[in-house]
């Protein structure tokens, strides 16, 4: 940009105005070009207006010089005839003052304009000839003003054309932003959890797992043959998962199975729909209560979110729980996260806000005391954040158990027994003995069954078709494997609810959920003994080395 100086005024002329039209991207910016052209026309108009104003002032000075010469002669002749000499002397002094100032081209503008007005008023009061002369020369500026009309018209037309160009470009840009936003949401929705499933195995620095399926099957077979190795030297704590409060029979059969064998077994009384950190604190207090009440170490078996809650308790409060917990078995637990929770609560996908509102309505309103964080803590983002911040202790054995749900058509007819409904009092006959009382009481209870296995089969089929991953209907197999744990991968097709609820179809030739839980805890005891022996051998070898 260069400057042009005209009588003390600096006018900027855009020498390189068009150089900024093209940006570093190499594409032609139409709006930038039109803005530069508009700036060029504005500065041309300013320059032409300044030249016109200067030219008009020059013409006025020439005319006023001629008027001064004529006025002096006229004043001399009329002074003898008109008695108003005071007014004429004032007029003559003003004329002389203005005549001397008109010889200078660069006179003060404000003073010149005030003097010109004064002259005109005196011309009107003194003589019609001066008035006619002034009015005759007053038409000169209007000529130049009328000559500027085409330029004003060009500028107006250009601005209208520029506005007509800007409007469609603005709407086009708005449409592009909207299309990109919709495309991004659609892409994120279709992509889903494809990049998150199995992130534990892909993360560098994670401890590899060990396969313990063969050992588990041997223990399970021995248990079915009557070889029970669990003793009463531990307290066994079963930790339920999400929505366990809605099913009164959650883990009830397993607890009854252990109690019949004389084992101290408890079901943790926690709110399964609470957040992971809240339940971790509750479990920490529960474990300490059991330990100080019995003096025995506690073996933990958590199902689904219960396993995640138990792992969080050990990760956060291991300093308080060290020496009080003997081992942890995670059964079908989404330790790395679950695509079900992530696909529901993922931000930036289509209808994400509406889906979240519906989920909050179900968890917080329909389920009494529920918390949206209970499901949010099972998403991949939350699990990554938690696992990277809290590591599991290496002193205790950990088992990861996961399975694959069946998607065969026969599963659709399978019903799951989740609760009992008691009928109102009926006048049934009572024979006075305990056995008849039990029969009467059983006759008043009606089993509540739902097609839970069918729902798990549909969900497992969905995850298999969308992501190509094997799952139990809720948790994929890769996300259930805890780094550094012993992994159990049974060959049977077991859905997510099979381990805690009784099915209406039972095969006496196959192990049930209670026997599998016993096999897992027996394996956990053996792994704990092996870790203790390795620790003692390591300490003894260090002593011999010293």
Automatic annotation (TrEMBL):
Domain of life of the native organism: Eukaryota
Gene3D superfamilies, alphabetized: alpha/beta hydrolase (3.40.50.1820)
Cross-referenced InterPro entries: AB_hydrolase_fold
Protein name (database record): Alpha/beta-Hydrolases superfamily protein
Protein species of origin: Acer negundo
Classification lineage: Eukaryota, Viridiplantae, Streptophyta, Embryophyta, Tracheophyta
């Amino acid at each position: 940009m260069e400057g042009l100086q005209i009588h003390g005024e600096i006018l900027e002329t855009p020498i390189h105005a068009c150089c900024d039209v093209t940006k570093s991207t190499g594409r032609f910016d139409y709006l930038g070009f039109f803005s530069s052209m508009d700036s060029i026309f504005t500065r041309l108009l300013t320059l032409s207006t300044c030249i016109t104003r200067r030219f008009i002032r020059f013409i006025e000075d020439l005319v006023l010089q001629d008027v001064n010469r004529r006025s002096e002669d006229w004043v001399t002749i009329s002074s003898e005839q008109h008695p108003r000499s005071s007014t004429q002397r004032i007029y003559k002094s003003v004329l002389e003052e203005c005549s001397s100032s008109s010889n200078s081209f660069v006179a003060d503008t404000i003073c010149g304009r005030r003097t010109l007005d004064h002259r005109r008023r005196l011309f009107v009061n003194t003589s019609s000839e001066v008035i006619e002369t002034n009015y005759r020369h007053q038409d000169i500026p209007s000529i130049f003003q009328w000559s500027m009309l085409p330029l004003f018209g060009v500028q107006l037309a250009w601005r209208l054309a520029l506005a007509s160009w800007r409007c469609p470009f603005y709407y086009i840009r708005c449409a592009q932003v909207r299309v990109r936003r919709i495309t991004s949401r659609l892409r994120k929705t279709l992509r889903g959890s494809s990049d998150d499933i199995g992130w534990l195995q892909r993360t560098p620095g994670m401890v590899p797992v060990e396969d313990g399926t063969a050992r588990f099957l041997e223990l399970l077979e021995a248990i079915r043959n009557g070889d029970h190795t669990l003793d009463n030297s531990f307290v066994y704590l079963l930790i339920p998962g999400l929505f366990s409060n809605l099913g009164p029979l959650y883990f009830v059969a397993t607890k009854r199975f252990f109690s019949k064998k004389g084992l101290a077994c408890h079901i943790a009384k926690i709110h399964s729909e609470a957040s992971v950190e809240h339940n971790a604190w509750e479990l920490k207090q529960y474990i300490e209560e059991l330990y100080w009440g019995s003096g025995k170490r506690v073996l933990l078996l958590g199902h689904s979110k219960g396993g995640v809650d138990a792992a969080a308790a050990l990760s956060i409060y291991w300093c308080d729980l060290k020496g009080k917990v003997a081992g942890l078995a995670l059964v079908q637990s989404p330790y790395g996260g679950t695509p079900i929770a992530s696909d529901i609560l993922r931000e930036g996908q289509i209808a994400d806000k509406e889906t979240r509102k519906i989920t909050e309505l179900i968890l917080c309103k329909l389920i009494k005391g529920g918390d949206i964080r209970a499901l949010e803590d099972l998403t991949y983002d939350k699990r990554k954040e938690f696992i990277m911040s809290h590591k599991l202790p290496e002193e205790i054995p950990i088992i990861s158990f996961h399975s694959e749900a069946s998607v065969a058509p026969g599963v659709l007819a399978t019903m799951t027994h989740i609760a009992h409904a008691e009928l109102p009092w009926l006048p049934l006959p009572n024979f006075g003995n305990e056995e008849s009382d039990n029969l009467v009481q059983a006759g008043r209870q009606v089993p509540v069954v739902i097609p839970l296995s069918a729902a798990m089969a549909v969900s497992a089929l969905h995850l298999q078709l969308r992501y190509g991953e094997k799952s139990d209907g809720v948790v994929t197999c890769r996300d259930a494997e805890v780094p550094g744990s012993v992994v159990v991968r049974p060959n049977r097709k077991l859905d997510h609810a099979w381990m805690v609820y009784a099915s209406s179809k039972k095969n006496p030739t196959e192990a049930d959920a209670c026997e599998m839980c016993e096999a897992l805890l027996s394996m956990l005891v053996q792994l704990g003994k092996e870790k203790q022996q390795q620790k003692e051998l390591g300490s003894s070898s260090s002593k011999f080395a010293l």
